[in-house]
Amino acid sequence: MAEHIALYAGSFDPPTLGHLDVISRARRLFDRIVVGIGENPEKQHMLTPEDRLRLMEQVVDEARTASPDGAPVEVRTYEGLTVDFARSIGAAALLRGIRNVTDLASECQLAIANRQVADIESVFVITDEQYGFTSSSLIRQIVELGGDIQKLANIVPAAVLRHLAEATQ
Questions:
Q1: Active-site residue among 19, 52, 140, 163?
Q2: 136 is catalytic
Q3: Are 57 and 35 in contact (CB under 8 A)?
Q4: Residue 19 catalytic?
Q5: pTM more than 0.70
Q6: Which CATH class is domain 5-167?
Q7: What is the chain's pLDDT, residue by residue, as a tens digit (169 residues)?
Q8: Which of 28, 43, 151, 162 is catalytic?
Q9: 45 catalytic residue (yes or no)
Q10: Distances from the Cα of 14 to the Cα of 43, 71, 88, 101, 157, angstroms
Q11: Among this protein's residues, is 43 annotated catalytic?
């Protein structure tokens, strides 16, 4: 029987507890999860690709240790189209987190396009309601405008919080 691999792709700039919630839920649905950290040329990144990879690996390892049951999770970087990376790793589906109704509309449009153009399905996982309005963009804005980083403790993993605090000192 073929292994069911999900690709959870994003910029993860920075990783959030909402991202970890999606990964945790997906570990019960797939045989393996690959977290793909990609580059979005339309976004101004706060963290380097190396920092995003290191932080995501760290928080995924911590989450796996805390909850060892479920599929293994691998973190990788990639360049180019997400669907090409998905094919290269043998992904059966693109994993997408849905926080709220706004996400659903845009993610449905993207899922239909990916199915028509690349013949790959998307699987939506709804995050816990406490992450319904958590976004990396919002976190970047708070950090870049000098907001109180400690107030982000409920939406970013501790390792990310430490990194952001150190980077802004």
A1: 19
A2: yes
A3: no
A4: yes
A5: yes
A6: alpha beta
A7: 789 999 999 999 999 999 999 999 999 999 999 999 998 888 888 999 999 999 999 999 999 888 889 999 999 999 999 999 999 999 999 999 999 998 999 999 999 999 999 999 999 999 999 999 889 999 999 999 999 999 999 999 999 999 999 988 7
A8: 43
A9: no
A10: 13, 23, 25, 22, 10
A11: yes
Written in H, E and C, the secondary structure of 76-142 is EECCCCHHHHHHHHCCCEEEEEECCHHHHHHHHHHHHHHHHHHCCEEEEEECCHHHCCCCHHHHHHH
Which residues, at least 6 apart from 87, have a Cβ–Cβ distance to it below 8 Å? 118, 120
Which is the catalytic residue, given 52, 99, 140, 163?
99
Write down the catalytic residue from 11, 24, 122, 136: 136
User: What local confidence, expressed as pLDDT, does residue 32 receive?
Assistant: 97
Nearest to 96 by CA among 15, 19, 3: 19
